[in-house]
Amino acid sequence: MNAAMLAPSILSADLTRLRDQIIAVEKGGADLLHVDIMDGHFVPNMTFGPNIVRALKSISNLPLDVHLMIERPENYVDEFIEAGASIVSVHYEATVHLHRLVQRIRSKGAKAGVALNPATPVSVLEEILPDLDMVLLMSVNPGFGGQKFIPASAAKVEKLRAMCDRLGVNPLIEMDGGIGVDNAKDLRRAGVDVFVAGNAVFGAPQIAATVDLLRTLIQA
Ligand code: DX5
Ligand code: ZN
């Protein structure tokens, strides 16, 4: 396992007060900022482009964890890396030449992640796992914040962790969707390293205190 990290997802932030909300998550001890990019094709919703990454980079020193929920991610990764992404995750389901794309992300100086939808088994990663810095397991169907955690996701983390041990590799394992104070601790035990939390952080009355509480839970 790796050290536990918390990545607040700005999808649920109040964009009219983005700077203040970033300051609050920094104060609470956030480790990364999770940025959800949606194209209205791969998922039924649209969000941001590289400009938001550039803007975040200019106001925060936290590494930017960019989750591309877009078709043909190979056409856009360069722009997101140039804008300041530290980690770029592409969906397994969204590209044909995954190996080529992972090499491309790394050659541009970013860490490479591969994301899996809830119905995609971890076994599809067998060949690419040694080349990955991170695996992002979706614990809701991607597209929206504030959804309910899919319970079978915990077993999927355990399966991935066992596969990593068998192959002798140790990528970050990130879980994304429906994570909060009620399930974070159990998910750490199952093997999650990076915890994405949108609604649980930005929907809380005290953002900094909630980040601090979540971090305490995952570090125990
Ligand atoms: C969903 C996004 C998530 C989302 C999580 O498609 O990938 O990152 O922001 O939000 P919560 O924590 O509210 O489920
Ligand atoms: Zn995400």
What keywords describe this structure?
single chain; 220 residues; alpha/beta; 8 helices; binds D-xylitol-5-phosphate; binds zinc ion; D-ribulose-phosphate 3-epimerase activity; metal ion binding
Summarize the structure.
The chain is of the alpha/beta class and 220 residues long.
Explain how this protein is built.
There is one protein chain. The chain has helices at 18-28, 50-59, 77-83, 98-107, 153-167, 184-190, 199-202, 207-219; strands at residues 5-8, 33-38, 64-69, 87-91, 111-116, 134-138, 172-176, 194-197. With 220 residues, the chain is an alpha/beta fold. It has an 8-stranded parallel beta sheet. Strand 6, helix 5 (153-167) and strand 7 form a beta-alpha-beta unit. Helix 1 (18-28) packs parallel to helix 8 (207-219) and helix 6 (184-190) runs parallel beside helix 8 (207-219). The protein is globular. The two termini are 14 Å apart. D-xylitol-5-phosphate (DX5) binds next to strand 2, strand 8 and helix 7.
